Amino acid sequence: MPKPQTKHNSAHDTSAAVDAFMQGLQHPHHEVIQSLRPLFLSLSDEVAEGIKWNAPSFRTHEYFATVNLREKQGLGIILHLGAKIKTLPEGGVRIADPQHLLKWLAANRASVVLADTDDFLSKESALKAILAQWILYV
């Protein structure tokens, strides 16, 4: 059964909005943020990007990931399950994370920190595997 679609049709819910945001962004990890975009978009044809919470964010029918531009140790990614509270399966969100990239912030929220471009490149395949699992909960 297909999941219900939430309308994301504002000017902020587009790749063009992310392009414009990135043009004006002065950030030490600009290159990593740009590298994250195709990684997220390659997860599924249902994944799209936009600007949410004043940062590049990614969604299926709900936003599920936001780049944390204020991370002190590099660049962060906050994984969440959208703005609405969801009933989680018993035991909560379960994600295989053999490299221990996830830092759990709550039962339905986690973060990943990338130190720099080299760190991103070394974790890219593990991160993609985590994200592929995460979008199944959104």
TrEMBL record:
InterPro entries: YdhG-like. Pfam families: DUF1801 (PF08818). Residues 30-135 form the YdhG-like domain. This is DUF1801 domain-containing protein. The lineage of its organism: Bacteria, Pseudomonadati, Pseudomonadota, Betaproteobacteria, Burkholderiales. It comes from Undibacterium danionis.
